[in-house]
From TrEMBL:
A matching Pfam family: Methyltransf_25
GO molecular function, one term: methyltransferase activity
Signal peptide bounds: none
Record-given protein name: SAM-dependent methyltransferase
Statement: the UniProt record of this protein carries the keyword Nucleotidyltransferase: no
Keywords: Methyltransferase, Transferase
Keyword Repressor found: no
Gene Ontology BP term (one): methylation
SUPFAM superfamilies in UniProt: S-adenosyl-L-methionine-dependent methyltransferases
């Protein structure tokens, strides 16, 4: 995984900041944070932070301490480079694997976009949830964007920035081979974990509640009108998983 992300660097950053699926993820996360009363005064951890988009969202929301973590040294370099231009010493970034996070907390809130999809097997999936739980205070929240299983090959997500090319039965969860639809396309692979698998791992890690919310789409605008989002709403790419420690 480290090599994969280090080689796509800024092209990945571009794809997730402009693609429609990412706009829906961000809008969903915004709504969930608002429903919790915001992040002001909280200690917040952003897992699989990439180049720091959601990490900066937490910092701008008034988090007391904001920490971004990613397995990719290149992504963390990009994130730190961005903070240096904005002169934001209040945001920390660390290179670390989610299957074995160092003790960085405790935190009141953790956000995670697609990190659990990269667990190669059930053992790693459970280790990821245990690492997150170990960094949360009692009562802390995990908000995780996770893909919805079972769409391929019936659903085409190409209009929203992602194309699934193949689904390969393999080990504990099928392997999805896909492209981010940048120019040129950026290949990536994720595991198709069922929501039940994720919930099992969360409970095993010590989370006391697990819930799900459907992804929400942003308000229509001149670029993406109501008709544009119709197919996405019928079968959204992802859902929001909410867990309480």
């Amino acid at each position: 995984m480290r090599f994969q992300y280090d080689t796509i660097g800024e092209r990945y950053a571009e794809s997730t900041s402009t693609a429609a699926f990412s706009a829906a993820d961000t809008y969903t996360l915004h709504g969930a944070l608002d429903a919790l009363g915001g992040v002001r005064g909280l200690d917040a951890l952003d897992l699989a932070c990439g180049y720091g988009y959601n990490t900066r969202l937490l910092a701008r929301g008034g988090a007391r301490r904001t920490v971004g973590v990613d397995v990719s040294e290149e992504m963390i370099r990009l994130a730190r480079e961005h903070e240096a231009t904005k002169d934001r010493p209040d945001v920390e970034y660390h290179v670390a694997d989610a299957t074995g996070l160092p003790h960085l907390g405790p935190f009141d809130l953790a956000t995670a976009a697609y990190v659990f999809s990269y667990a190669p097997d059930r053992r790693s999936l459970h280790a990821m949830f245990r690492s997150v739980r170990a960094n949360l205070r009692a009562g802390g929240r995990l908000l995780a964007i996770v893909p919805n299983a079972g769409a391929f090959p019936r659903v085409d997500w190409s209009p929203y920035g992602v194309r699934i090319l193949d689904r390969v039965p393999d080990g504990d969860a099928p392997l999805l081979k896909a492209h981010f639809l940048t120019e040129p396309p950026v290949p990536f692979e994720i595991r198709e974990w069922a929501h039940a698998d994720l919930a099992e791992a969360a409970v095993d890690a010590g989370f006391v509640t697990v819930g799900w919310q459907p992804n929400r789409t942003p308000p229509a605008d001149a670029v993406r009108d109501e008709a544009y989002w119709t197919a996405y709403r019928a079968w959204p790419i992802s859902s929001l998983m909410t867990c309480t420690a």
